[in-house]
Amino acid sequence: MGKRFVMSTVELRHIITEHLSHIDDASFLKAIKTIIESKVSEGEYKLSDFQKKRIDSARNELKQKKTISHNELQKEIDQWLNTK
User: Which domain of life is it from (predicted)?
Assistant: First the structure.
């Protein structure tokens, strides 16, 4: 048997966030939201350093106008998929 890999809370959050960003099933996402809200309501929610850095990064990109609209992104994705 090999060593057991134990992930930190930060690593688990990152993995879950990445997976959630690819799920389009609204009923599943609502169920996850309910679970999360029940846990968050137990106490004050605190952002991790990783989350704070991602928020700061996103705010900086927004200030520097390094963003595009959802529609523009969808067009780029459609164009990319049509060239494959």
Answer: Bacteria
